[in-house]
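May I ask for a single protein's sequence together with how it folds?
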Amino acid sequence: MASLFTKIVDGEIPCYKIAEDENHLAFLDVFPLAKGHTLVIPKQETDYIFDLEDAALAALHVFAKKVAKGIDKVVPCKRIGVSVIGLEVPHAHVHLIPMNSVSDMDFSKEKLSFPPDEMEALAAEIAAAI
């Protein structure tokens, strides 16, 4: 059965798309820790990030770097934090999280919620900054 992220790649589930190329997709997390929290995925479904071929893993991180620089131009923060957990969705992915302190990357804290129009505007603004 296809993962949630594969369904997003296939257009079965909508997302707030930020960037895309032939092999990768970046979109806003709908349960963010911070405004601008973004997920970066390979389009090819692979459960565990370290099962990706070396070239695919490197390409994912290079794509994530490009996306992070766009987020940093739009969302006020000290850094864009990077996290790979891989337990919540069985599809390799990288979290890019605008942060001002280490506690901003605490996945146990309550998630934020933003109205759809704000998410759409933010995704468009970050996309334009890339």
Observations:
- Residues 54-74 form the longest helix (21 residues).
- The two ends are 33 Å apart (CA to CA).
- Helices lie at 4-9, 54-74, 116-129.
